[in-house]
């Protein structure tokens, strides 16, 4: 089939997705044009912010790719205090960001559940309920997810990392603590509880093929999520996967493949929120803006107090780790305009996909 027809298909199959992912030259231009057209039609020109608070790098997991894995003795561990988290959220509110994301290493305990619940209540209070809150705190029990939802969180991010169970097994330790099915179960629970649910994967992992990535896209479609965050895998020297660095795609190709993934996903899932991953910016200073140009519509400016940013090193070269949140502001506004978009200040910027889904549910129940 001609490439120009493939990109217009409603339900492309795995082979067609692979062709789109591997597009280069003129075909790539066509792919990007189609993605931009789709974004303009279903989302518009607005980009929404989520102020990212990396609240702790203490993690009970040992993922083979991740710089803050439990087994990495070289990391200086930190945890923000309640006051620091609340202050960061107040900063986001003052700047009219609309939403914050609270992200951290994975910890599961009754005390942790209670602490997050308390923080959610406080953030809701300080913003008069106006600040949207996304959580990204890993795998938890259904009861914990429910308590956090009732305390005011309405979105949850949990990347599946790879939807291929075999590949998942290669990048995580064996055993029940890193179980693919448990992770998938968490995503279903989040959806059942009514969270706007986000997932995603890393692009350019060792052992990963474009076939795997095509499967990832079909997985996202099948799961029918509202949001996706996905970005290039970047090797970290203090992790087990580092030994495969010689077998990876060159970094520039990983970056380009990530942009193709975003464009194809936009064509496939027209009205979901797609984040321009920070990892893109670690490779190219204009990486996130390039993602916006090919279909992404969410940016997560880092608002973690500057002091701690260096310690939240999931991968090498994490950008802007030396800056204070205030310094990022003017910079971002200008960048978004360059990407022919504008910022939706003070808005939640819920995914249109979610809004449609809720409308359909309401219609069928009443
Ligand atoms: N390169 C790129 N992304 C990474 N993440 C963790 N380690 C790396 C890495 N080395 C991503 C994972 C995780 C998110 C918080 O960061 O996808 O879900
Ligand atoms: Fe815990 Fe990566 S191993 S966040």
Describe the structure.
Strands 2, 3, 4, 5, 6, 7, 8 and 9 form an 8-stranded parallel beta sheet that branches. Helix 3 crosses helix 10 (251-268) and helix 4 (82-94) runs parallel beside helix 5. The chain has a single domain, classed as Alpha-Beta Barrel (TIM Barrel). The protein is built from 15 helices and 11 strands. The protein has 366 residues and is α/β, with parallel strands linked by helices. Helices cover 45% and strands 12% of the residues. The protein is globular, with a radius of gyration of 19 Å. The protein has helices at 3-6, 14-21, 25-42, 82-94, 110-126, 142-150, 165-171, 180-192, 210-223, 251-268, 278-283, 287-293, 306-309, 325-338, 352-365, and strands at 46-49, 51-56, 99-104, 132-136, 155-157, 196-199, 202-203, 227-232, 273-276, 298-299, 342-343. It binds 5'-deoxyadenosine (5AD) and FE2/S2 (inorganic) cluster (FES). FE2/S2 (inorganic) cluster is lined by residues 59, 61, 63, 66, 68-69, 105-106.
């Amino acid at each position: 089939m001609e490439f120009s027809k493939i990109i217009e298909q409603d339900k492309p199959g795995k082979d067609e997705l692979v062709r789109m992912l591997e597009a280069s030259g003129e075909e790539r231009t066509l792919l990007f044009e189609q993605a931009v057209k789709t974004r303009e039609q279903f989302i518009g020109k607005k980009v929404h912010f989520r102020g990212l608070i990396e609240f702790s790098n203490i993690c009970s997991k040992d993922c083979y790719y991740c710089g803050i894995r439990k087994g990495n003795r070289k990391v200086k561990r930190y945890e923000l205090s309640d006051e620091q988290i609340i202050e960061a959220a107040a900063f986001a509110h003052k700047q009219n960001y609309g939403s914050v994301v609270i992200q951290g290493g994975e910890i599961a305990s009754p005390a942790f559940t209670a602490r997050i619940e308390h923080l959610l209540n406080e953030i809701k209070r300080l913003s008069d309920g106006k600040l949207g809150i996304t959580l990204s705190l890993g795998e938890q029990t259904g009861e914990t997810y429910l308590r956090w939802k009732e305390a005011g969180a309405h979105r949850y991010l949990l990347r599946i990392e790879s939807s291929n169970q075999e590949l998942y097994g290669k990048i995580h330790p064996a055993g029940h603590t890193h179980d693919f099915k448990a992770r998938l179960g968490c995503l279903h629970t989040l959806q059942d509880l009514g969270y706007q649910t986000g997932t995603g994967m890393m692009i350019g992992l060792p052992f990963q093929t474009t076939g795997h990535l095509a499967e990832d896209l079909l997985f996202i479609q099948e799961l029918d999520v509202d949001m996706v965050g996905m970005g290039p895998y970047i090797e970290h020297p203090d992790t087990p996967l580092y030994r495969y660095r010689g077998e990876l795609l060159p970094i520039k190709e990983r970056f380009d493949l990530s942009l193709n993934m975003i464009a194809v996903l936009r064509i496939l899932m027209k009205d979901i929120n797609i984040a321009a991953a920070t990892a893109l910016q670690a490779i190219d200073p204009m990486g996130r803006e390039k993602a916006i140009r090919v279909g992404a519509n969410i940016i997560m400016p880092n608002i973690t107090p500057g002091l701690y940013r260096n310690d939240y090193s999931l991968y090498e070269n994490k950008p802007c780790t030396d800056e204070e949140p205030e310094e990022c502001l003017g910079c971002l506004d200008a960048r978004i305009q360059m990407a022919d978009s504008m910022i939706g200040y003070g808005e939640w910027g819920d995914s249109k996909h979610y809004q449609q889904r809720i409308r359909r549910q309401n219609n069928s129940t009443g």
